[in-house]
């Protein structure tokens, strides 16, 4: 248990120091310029997104360094353990997509004025049905398309940190702590508008604090789902698939708003703190309900084990 505590501390110091230095010094200034429209150069925007993607590999790098320092190479959660674990893998592949759709449906039922017809993002290249089919295929294949980058994060969070915390605490406490840490890890990018673009141009620092807090809330509820399926399979791969599915489907609700065809209407069509995106309290209602269900399931399971 003492070595476990040492591993957690080393990992957290490494992942925050390395990530914050890289994001604050190199990524955040570029991201702010692109996100605010100050920079319109496509190459600059592509380079910025590539740098954001690089950040996703830092948790895995920190796991490798931590394990090398401590000599602890047990329970790496790298084996897929497919046998008998079809359910966690199916939840990982399709679960986030379904939860994002649920949140969007709730939002549009409450705010029908924001709903428009589907905006095919590939209309110029593939108009009509062909473009819609391509979009649906990319949604369904998102877990595979995002496999490498999402592994970069997930081996840190669900393949290392959460199992280590779970050795010390209950599942729910481990999931909660992992979610808070995961949310704070995003802080430098959140501060320049990542996921919560409406804080851009707002002078109040409290809006930045609110955005970081909102990100932590979302990461906590997502951590319950991702942690649960990884715990069931004793493998990081269901969480990797879930993360890829979530990232691939994140913008899906916007395809049904006028904001896709007219960005100037974005602030009236949606609010990242509320919906229809899953980072909002209404758009994320599916993730919230799933987290509550998992909380009670795991609380009951662990209660029976300790009885």
Count, helices: 12
Q: Radius of gyration, rounded? A: 20 Å
Helix content: 55-70%
Give the overall average pLDDT.
91
**Uncertain stretches of 5 or more adjacent residues:** none
Global structural class: mainly alpha
Would you list the SSEs in sequence order as H and E?
HHHHHHHHHHHH
Termini separation comes to 22 Å
Number of domains: 1
Main beta sheet, described? none
Q: What percent strand?
A: under 5%
Oligomer kind: single chain
**Inertia-based shape:** globular
Per DSSP E runs of 2 or more residues, the count of β-strands stands at 0
Protein described:
- This protein has 307 residues and is mainly alpha-helical.
- It has one domain.
- It is 69% helix and 0% strand.
- The protein is built from 12 helices and no strands.
- The chain has helices at residues 2-35, 42-55, 58-70, 86-110, 129-145, 147-168, 171-185, 187-190, 205-233, 237-249, 266-269, 285-306.
- Helix 4 crosses helix 12.
- The radius of gyration is 20 Å and the shape is globular.
- The protein starts with a helix and ends with a helix.
Please outline the helices and strands.
Layout: H1 2-35, H2 42-55, H3 58-70, H4 86-110, H5 129-145, H6 147-168, H7 171-185, H8 187-190, H9 205-233, H10 237-249, H11 266-269, H12 285-306
Helix pairs in contact: 1-2, 1-3, 1-6, 3-6, 4-9, 4-10, 4-12, 5-10, 6-7, 6-9, 6-10, 7-9, 9-10, 9-12
């Amino acid at each position: 248990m003492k070595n476990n505590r040492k591993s957690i501390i080393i990992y957290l110091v490494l992942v925050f120091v390395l990530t914050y230095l890289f994001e604050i010094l190199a990524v955040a200034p570029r991201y702010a310029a692109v996100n605010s429209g100050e920079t319109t150069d496509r190459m600059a925007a592509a380079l910025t997104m590539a740098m954001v993607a690089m950040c996703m590999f830092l948790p895995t790098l920190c796991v490798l360094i931590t394990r090398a320092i401590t000599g602890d190479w047990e329970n790496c959660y790298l084996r897929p353990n497919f046998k008998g674990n079809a359910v966690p893998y199916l939840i990982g592949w399709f679960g986030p997509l379904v939860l994002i759709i649920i949140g969007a449906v709730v939002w549009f039922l409450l705010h029908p004025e924001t709903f428009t017809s589907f905006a095919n993002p590939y209309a110029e290249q593939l108009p009509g049905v062909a473009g819609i089919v391509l979009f649906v295929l990319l949604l369904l294949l998102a877990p595979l398309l995002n496999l490498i980058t999402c592994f970069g994060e997930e081996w840190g969070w669900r393949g290392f940190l959460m199992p280590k915390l779970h050795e010390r605490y209950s599942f729910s406490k481990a999931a909660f702590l992992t979610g808070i840490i995961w949310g704070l890890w995003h802080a430098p990018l959140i501060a320049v508008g990542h996921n919560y673009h409406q804080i851009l141009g707002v002078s109040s620092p409290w809006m930045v604090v609110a955005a970081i807090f909102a990100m932590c809330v979302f990461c906590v509820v997502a951590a319950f789902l991702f942690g649960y399926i990884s715990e069931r399979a004793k493998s990081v791969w269901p969480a990797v698939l879930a993360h890829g599915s979530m990232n691939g489907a994140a913008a899906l609700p916007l395809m049904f708003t006028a904001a896709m065809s007219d960005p100037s209407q974005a602030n009236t069509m949606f609010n990242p703190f509320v919906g229809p995106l899953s980072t909002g309290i209404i758009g994320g209602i599916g993730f919230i309900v799933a987290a509550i269900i998992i909380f009670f399931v795991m609380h009951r399971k662990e209660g029976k084990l300790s009885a």
